[in-house]
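Task card 7
Instruction: Convert sequence to structure tokens.
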Amino acid sequence: MAIYKNIRTSASEGVPVVFLTSSKFIDRELIQQTQQELIAFIQSSKPARLVINFKDVEAISSEFITTMLRCSDYVQSENGELRLCNMTPMVRMAFQVTNLDGTLLHIMDSTPKAILSFKQKK
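Output:
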């Protein structure tokens, strides 16, 4: 199993859940390292469903939003689905002002709601 510096992985109801471990994704180097870790995890596990949990994240830059779009592309390239969850109002607003919430990215209030949304889609 790979060791990651900027993400922590677990599973809930058989769905992989990735927790972002930094509170601020503003620094370009941190964003690039995190993106590499996320993509490595996605490429190695090829999840049919994946949740990225923002529980500890207080701030993001537009570059980090691009990272989430790349993750979504990688998951979808394997016919998988991605959900983001547990965002603070400020972080979620960054996705809303870019019109990505509910269009290219699906943001849920919690991990259980994210997992339930996969089941409701069937």
